[in-house]
Design a protein that fits this description.
mainly alpha, two-stranded antiparallel ribbon, 78% helix, globular
Amino acid sequence: MKEWKRYVTGLLLIPVVMSAVYLLPERIFVWLMMIFAYLAYLEFISIFNLKKDILFAFSSVLMLLMIDSINGLGAIRSIGDITINDFYTMLPLLRRFFLTATGAVVLIPVLSLIGKDSVDMKLKKMLLYLSGFFYLGLTFGLFSAIRHQTDGHHWLAFAFVVPWICDTGAYYGGRFFGKRKFAPVISPNKTWEGAVSGTLFSVITGAVFAFTLLKYESAWYVITVSLFIGIFGQAGDLVESLIKRNAGVKDSGKLFPGHGGILDRCDSLLFSVAIIFIGFLIRSYAL
């Protein structure tokens, strides 16, 4: 039954996500990413049974402001094509970004001291809130930043589709050929054969994009990025599995029937947008 729910939910999500990528106005898309980031942060805190107190309120607001500043920076111009006027326009956004980031570094530890929790609980709260703030705040901000780049809508579609195909390839590759366990302590069902299959399908998907939607990009560049997404996207899946295993939960939430919560659905996607953005930065300096 769960498999059917998973397939139906997946089929319904694909047109919804692609419509959001290509059709939503810029500001609405940013708000959507901010909403998902907030819900993901809430899931992250909730699976560890931490109280949603003043610490959550302050850190959530700061995270949303940081996401908005990242979007603004992405809207200036394509990476590697920044003029002196763009630089002056970026200064207020950079100030806001560093204000929110450094504000979190100061406020989260200080606010963790409030209350009658044990020393271990205070330390746990501080570390979890800080890690969730940067992990989710930075990556969710990159969705809109990528969308602003040259061919940004196609690149963002690429960021979604490659991990989806990778997951499918890894699942069926592991199901039919899997023998050697990949990470038995973290995720017992994953195999090396599945991981290789997923990476192979990622590269094939990258090649399809390189000769269609991203045909004006270097084919080798697009395929290389898809290779790294295939590798690190599966690592992102394992990272989320590690978080859930440590928290003692199977799913981070129940928002998507058969898939779990936002963290369950976005684990590899967060690594995917990070890899694409890093690729943009490297290309702007090295190519």
